[in-house]
Amino acid sequence: MLRSDHRTGIDRFANRRLQVSRSAGSTGNEFAMDVPLPPPTFYVCPGERYAISRSVHWARLAAFYDKCRDCPHQHDTGLLPARLVRAPQAESALRAVRRTRQLLPGGVRGRYLNDIDRQTAMAWARAFAARLWDDRPFPGRLMPVETVSASRPLPWRGPVVVAGFDERPASPDVAVGIITGLRQMGCQVLDVGCVTRPMWKLAQEWFHADGGMFVTGAGCDPAWTGWDMLRAGGRAQIAPAELAAESSVPIGRPTRTAGTVATRTILADYRAGLTKWFHALRPLKVVCATPLQLLRDLLPPLFAPLPCQFQVQAWPRQRTIVDAPPPGIDRLANVVRETRADVGVLIDEDGATRTLIDEQGKPLPPSAWQPWLQRHVDEPLGEDGVVILGAVLQALSLSDAPFSERLRGPAC
Asked: Where is the Alpha-D-phosphohexomutase alpha/beta/alpha domain positioned along the sequence (predicted)?
C-alpha cells in the first residue's frame, strides 16, 4: 500500500526550498536557485501496520523479503541492479515459495514462515476465540447494578481452550502465537504442552473445555506446520474457510481483561488409562513403528510387565495420501517377517493407526481389520493408535490362531 503524509498535504513540501548560493568572484554578484523537494514516499508491507521508507522497501526487495511476494509495489525497484530483481534463479525461487496454505476439514497446513508464522497463528486464534464467545450464552447479572464498580466488576469467565503442540521443531513457536491470540480474546487457556493428538482430545474431555487448538503438521512434509481446531459439546466444527476470511480483518476484543494461562500435565493420567488394554495378554511378538518420540518412550514400560516381546522403531515424518498405503510400508513388513512377529502396527504422526501387518507381512488397510476388531470390543475405540494396539492384542489373545486366519471368518 502506497501512501504520503496526508495531514499537511503537498503544500508542505512545496514550501521547502533548497537555497544554493554561489559567489560571483570579485564582482560580488550572487544568485539563488530554488529547487523544490518531492514529497517522501512510504510503503506498508502486506500484513503490517507501520510504514517503511523507500530505502527500506528497496533493501527488502534486494534481500528477497518474504512479504514482497504479495506486495503490489514489488516492481518499484528503483536503481537496484537487474541481477537482483530479474535474475532467473530469483524468479524461480519466488515461484517455488508461492503460498500453498491448505485448508483441511478441521485445520490448516502450510510451510513454516513462508505460509504460517507466529502472527498468522495469532490472527487465526483470535478468529477461533471469537466463534467460541459467540457459542456462550449471556449469563446476565449476578449482582445488583448498584454494587458493580471498577473495583468490583461483573464476574465473567471466558471460554476454556486446551492448547497443545506436537514434536515438530516449528510447533513451539506457532503455539506461542496461538496462546497469545487466545489470551487477547479473554480465553482461559490450558496449556498441555507437547503431546499427541489423542492426548490433546482427551484433555478437552477431562477439563470440559469449550474448544481446543493443536499445533501440528501431521500429514505433510517435515517443513510444514499448522493446527487443528475442535469445538466441544458436539457442536458443528468451524469451516476453516470462514476463519480464513475473519482472520484477515481486525477483530474486536470481547473483554478488556486478558485471559489466563495454566499449565496442565496429562501424560501420567493418560498412561494410567491405558492399563486396561495392556494386561492379561498371551505371549505375542509385536513390532511397532511411529515417528512420535513420546510413544517410543511410552510403549516399552507398558509392555515391561507383560509376557510379550515388543520392538519399537522410529518412522520418518512424511506426507500421507488418503486411501493409499503409507510410503515405505514394505520396510516394516520385512521386519515383521524377519522377526516372525504376530502383528505389526504403524502409528502415524497424528497418533492414529491406519495400517496393521499380519504375520505374513501383508499390510492391512482399516477396512480389512476394523470390522473384525469391533466384534471383539464392546466400546468405541476412536482414533487413538495406542488404544487400538491394545485392543488388537486383547483380541489376538483370545485364540492361538494367527492373525491372518482370525480375519477370515466372523467366528474367529
From this structure: 158-235
| d(C-alpha 225, C-alpha 166), whole Å | 10
Indicate the domain borders of the chain. 41-80, 102-139+155-264, 275-407
User: Grid coordinates representing 210?
Assistant: 469449550
Domains 102-139+155-264 and 275-407 share a fold: yes
Tell me the per-residue pLDDT of 267-325, one tens digit each, with 9 for 90 and over.
999 999 999 999 999 999 999 999 999 999 999 999 999 999 999 999 998 887 666 77
Q: Among candidates 386, 360, 392, which has minimal Cα distance to 281?
A: 392
- In this structure, the number of other CB atoms found within 10 A of the CB of residue 375 comes to 11
Q: CA neighbours within 13 Å on the CB side: how many for 403? A: 25
Residue 39 DSSP code: P
- Contact assessment for residue 213 and residue 270, using Cβ atoms and an 8 Å cutoff: no
How far is the CA of 123 from the CAs of 26, 187, 266, 331, 405, in angstroms? 70, 14, 28, 42, 53
In this structure, are residues 314 and 339 in contact, taking their beta carbons and an 8 Å threshold? no
Three-state SS at 74: coil
Strand partners, 346: 289, 355
- Segment 90-120, tens digit of pLDDT: 444 444 444 567 888 889 999 999 899 999 9
Phi, psi of 140 (to 5 degrees): 80, 175
Q: Which residues pair with 225 in a beta bridge?
A: 110
The hierarchical CATH code for the domain 102-139+155-264 is: 3.40.120.10
Residue 225 in 3-state DSSP? strand
Residue with cell 534463479: 89
DSSP symbols for 229-268: EEESTTPPPPPHHHHHHHHTS----S-SS---EEE---HH
C-alpha cell at 115: 505460509
CATH annotation of 275-407: 3.40.120.10
